[in-house]
Amino acid sequence: MTSLGRASAILGAGTLISRITGLVRTIVLVAAIGTIGQAGDAFGVANQLPNNVFTIIQTGILTAVIIPQIVKSASHADGGEGYISKLFTLGTVVFLGATAAAMLAAPWLVGLYASNGFSPDQLALGTAFAYWCLPQIFFYGLYALIGETLNAKRVFGPYTWTPVANNIISIAGFLVFIALFGGNQSRVDVWDPTMIAVLGGTATLGITVQALLLLFAWRRTGLRLRPDFRWKGVGLGQVGTLAGWTFLMVIAGQIAGLIQTRVVTDSSGDHPSVFMMQAAWLVFMLPYSIFAISIGTPYFTQIAEHAHANRRDEVRSDVARCIRVVSLFIIGSGIALAVAAVPATRIFTESPADAVAAAPVLVCYLIGLLPLSVLFIVQRAFYAFGDTRTPFVFTLVQVSLIIGFSYLAAAVAPLSQLAAAVALGQSIAGLVQTVIAVLILRHRLGGLELPQTLLSLGRFVIAAVPAGLAGWGTYLLLGADAGWTAGQTGSTFVDKLLGAVGTGVIGLVAVIVYALVLLLLRAPEMSAARGLIRRILPGR
User: Fold this and answer.
1) How does DSSP assign 110-125, residue by residue?
2) First to last CA, the chain
3) Which residue has the higher pLDDT, 123 or 186?
4) DSSP state of 374
């Protein structure tokens, strides 16, 4: 447990720095192209394409399949060196092919996501951005393959820390853009090839450096890589079978995301749309990445080892303990971020009015924060046993609900709230999916310590109520939408800084109250929280 806590602390610290620099990156990007406007949404759609392919590669194949296979390959005579060389050779070929295919299909892909919400000029700008952004697919693939292998070998830090370099490069490049061409270039008709090249090229350069930096950490695995095209007879058929279900699962998720994007582009130009949803999702991912991924990733490696040894009791205990520890942090941070939604969204918007418009999108995403975090753990327990078919089945339920809720939102929600309605539908669908997944896993493992876990969750929710009230009261005392936390000085930098400070003040009040109530309730998970915090703090 000390080893897991130390790994979680390293990942948490790296993720925190990565997400903070990522928010700064978004702030600078917003200053360059605006928050609500056609140019921002065109770039948002284009830059979303490689991210979608990265999701297919990472979640659909690597996390679900490769880590358990690499753990098993450690028992080979060469420590898995030959097996991993074959996987890397195959992966490189696949990533190159996927990148080439996407480049050829760029106009069709942009049109597919943009639907009828984009004007012809906006479609043309989105396609031009896509040609610059789609090469990211190859480097995203290398980054994921190297990083997941490092995780499987218990080298956890580099995969989390290298995105900081990406963010720094992007920030510098976007600042150069502003210096050369000015800020808030939200109109489509002002863009020329040089502007497109600087913005799109900067985004791709950051991902390239992010991937290449991971190579410097490879020596810590003790493995030597070499090109090996002899793929037959090394179990890749089994990998293909396992990956087939996860590939279909992620493709189903991408279809749901496609429908969401096509629906929400109807509000592009005057209301929160694609780019605003991406920015709100970035803020939403801050607690998810810091706590769910940072704590859950080391657990997943241990769960995979216990599953390989068929120690089901230990797997059951691992999963239940991980859910409780992750939920402690997720519920506290989620309620703190929800009551500070307006200051939080002010960080990446151009005016207090835009922040008020974006806040419901963030809150609707946050409703699904706990289910998504629990699902991260439960889903990987299935993967540890080599079962990728069951996650595909319960993901289909989620996908069907997301599509249904998206069309319902398009039918009933006003354009000003369309993005929030789509986000809410996703959260509800995720909740249903997670309940189904937990029940199936509980049956599969012969129990999941649910009474103890539900008791812990009950304590967390009880503590979250006064915490939320305290945070909301602080927001009102500070002036609410008309106060300084909404940033109304007229200076872009000062306004965003005030939004960040306001988020910190309101969130800190909520978190302190949350922790005090849990201490009064004698929540046993607080000891794990103190251990992680001690490891993250400097000098501890």
Assistant:
1) HHHHHTTSS-HHHHHH
2) 17
3) 123
4) H
C-alpha span between 499 and 514 (Å, rounded): 22
The pLDDT of 403-416, averaged and rounded, is: 94
Opening angle at CA 231, ends 230 and 235, nearest 5: 140
Q: In a 3-state reduction of DSSP, which class is residue 128?
A: helix
Encoded tokens for 364: 């609707």
CA distances from 407 to 241, 261, 447 (A): 33, 11, 38
Q: Give the tens place of pLDDT for each residue, 465-520.
A: 999 999 999 999 999 888 899 888 777 778 888 988 999 999 999 999 999 999 99
Cα–chain center distance at 14: 14
Tokens linked to 237: 């058929």
Amino acid found at 427 = S
Alpha-carbon distance 498 to 476, whole Å?
Answer: 15
> CB neighbours of 509 closer than 8 A, spacing ≥ 6?
470, 471, 474
> Taking a C-beta distance cutoff of 8 angstroms, is the pair 422, 409 a contact?
yes
* Backbone φ, ψ for residue 283 (5° rounding): -65, -45
CB 377, CB 326: distance < 8 Å: yes
Least trusted range by pLDDT, from 111-120, 230-239, 293-302:
230-239
